[in-house]
Amino acid sequence: MERDDYLANVKIRMPEKRYIHTIGVMETAISLAKKYGEDEKSAETAAILHDIAKYADENWMREVVQTKGLDPRLLGWGSEILHGPVGAWIAQHEFNITNEDILNAIRFHTTGRAGMSKLEKIIYIADMIEPNRNFPGVENLRQIANENLELAMESCVSHSITFLVQTKQPIFPASVECFNDIIS
């Protein structure tokens, strides 16, 4: 499949606002891939498909986790956490994506994980800083991403965890593992 085919497939699965976000993530990921020497086509594909399951039925996503051998820790979480791993499963089984780096970039774009590849970091960061995002500190994160990928990843993960702590939301274990890995 090519870009237009992927875009057409994701557009029908999400509201227009999320589709605009997806385009922003795609453009940001391609730009970061160019800057940091990552495969641009892989960044494009992972970015387009990163939210493919964002609006899938939550019960269906739990069923996928249970029946397809996904991380059982996911079952205690809602769609914010489920949509990444289930999206990777969709990318693999519906779109025949076999590149494990692309699948992991989709799988961990929300939580992060210890030992992330450059492509995984690019998608995680692009999802957070794409041009349509508007939250306190995003401009600083964009500037850091333009200067240093590793520092940008550390800053984005720190921002995310700080937000979750301040709003008294639970933190998925892979996010804590990601943070610990980055600062060690």
Describe this structure in words.
This protein is mainly α and 184 residues long. The protein has a single domain (3-183), classed as Hypothetical protein af1432. 68% of the residues lie in helices and 0% in strands. The protein is built from ten helices and no strands. It has helices spanning 3-11, 16-36, 40-49, 58-67, 79-94, 100-107, 118-129, 138-147, 149-166, 173-183. α2 crosses α7 (118-129). It is globular and about 40 Å long.
Helix-strand blueprint:
Layout: H1 3-11, H2 16-36, H3 40-49, H4 58-67, H5 79-94, H6 100-107, H7 118-129, H8 138-147, H9 149-166, H10 173-183
Helix pairs in contact: 1-3, 2-3, 2-7, 3-6, 3-7, 4-5, 5-6, 6-7, 7-9, 8-9, 9-10
InterPro entries: Diverse_Catalytic_Enzymes, HD/PDEase_dom, HD_domain, HDIG_dom, YqeK
Domain HD: 18-132
Catalytic activity: P(1),P(4)-bis(5'-adenosyl) tetraphosphate + H2O = 2 ADP + 2 H(+)
Alpha-carbon Rg, integer: 15 Å
CATH domain fold name = Hypothetical protein af1432
Task: Name the beta content range.
Answer: under 5%
Count up the domains.
1
Overall 3D shape:
globular
In whole angstroms, the N-to-C terminal distance is 39 Å
- CATH class identity: Mainly Alpha
What is the number of beta strands?
A: 0
Named at the architecture level, the CATH assignment is Orthogonal Bundle
Which series of helices and strands comes N to C? HHHHHHHHHH
Which regions have little confidence, pLDDT < 50, spanning 5+ residues?
Answer: none
| Helix-and-strand structural type | mainly alpha
Helix content: 55-70%
